[in-house]
Design goal:
The complex is a heterodimer.
Chain A lengths: L2 E5 L3 E2 L5 E8 L8 E7 L6 E7 L4 E3 L7 E6 L4 E6 L8 E8 L4 E4 L3 E5 L2
Parallel strand pairs in A: 2-11
Antiparallel strand pairs in A: 1-3, 3-8, 4-5, 4-9, 5-6, 7-8, 9-10, 9-11
Chain B lengths: L8 E4 L5 E6 L11 E5 L6 E4 L13 E6 L2 E6 L8 E9 L5 E4 L3 E5 L1
Classes of the chains: A mainly beta, B mainly beta.
């Protein structure tokens, strides 16, 4: 059974960089599939941030592309998200998920990120 | 403003049937598979329907999906109070570059 778990700081200062990691268990990332990051501001809908293939190819939301980097570490079976120049608008619950071409399954439980000085 | 349009809310009584629409365009729904996600209060989204109308293992057949042209529909029959949740559609969009898009979400209330 594939499981994903996000981790990272719950509080980040404005203008700083958010770094989150998604640990995958029950499946080896190097075996294939895509791996994605989404976020959900409080009380709002889901927003796709980006996706990485196990080989390292990436796809980013154009609205965030200039600030986002997604990377994969197959040796540790995890993938990561970096989002720089944070503002209050980036406060959200951040989710990671496995992407099987046309859908996301399963999802991690999510991690809440607050942006405040 | 989401690329995929969903009604903000729907409601129905227990035991009844409800449908949730997801409207898009030829650059997304019209030429790609649609998936649906259920988000119970305070939890992460969960895959409900994939490839327009397929149910993952463990999802009851009360949940169904369909697609016609540039619109998709999620149907739920035999409504239960436990179905109260937010529902999201999602698909790829190929308008400029490959990107994934979600609908704005629909809040289902079981009266």
């Amino acid at each position: 059974q594939v499981q994903l778990q996000e981790s990272g700081p719950g509080l980040v200062k404005p203008s700083e960089t958010l770094s989150l990691t998604c640990a995958v268990s029950g499946y080896s990332i190097s075996s294939g599939y895509y791996w994605g990051w989404m976020r959900q501001p409080p009380g709002k809908g889901l927003e796709w941030i980006g996706t990485i293939y196990h080989s390292g190819s990436t796809y980013y939301n154009p609205s965030l592309r200039s600030r986002v980097t997604i990377s994969v570490d197959t040796s540790k079976n995890r993938f990561s998200l970096k989002l720089n120049s944070l503002t209050a608008a980036d406060a959200a619950v951040y989710y990671c998920a496995r992407q099987l071409s046309n859908y996301f399954d399963p999802w991690g439980q999510g991690t809440l990120v607050t942006v405040s000085s | 403003q989401s690329v995929l349009t969903q009604p903000p809310s729907v409601s129905a009584a227990p035991g009844q049937k409800v449908t949730i629409s997801c409207s898009g365009s030829s650059s997304n729904i019209g030429n790609n598979y649609v998936s649906w996600y259920q988000q119970l209060p305070g939890t992460a989204p969960k895959l409900l329907i994939y490839d327009n109308n397929k149910r993952p293992s463990g999802i009851p057949d009360r949940f169904s999906g369909s697609k016609s042209g540039t619109s998709a529909t999620l149907g739920i029959t035999g409504l239960q109070t436990g179905d109260e949740a937010d529902y999201y559609c999602g698909t790829w969009d190929n308008s400029l570059s490959a990107l994934w898009v979600f609908g704005g979400g629909t809040k289902l209330t079981v009266l």
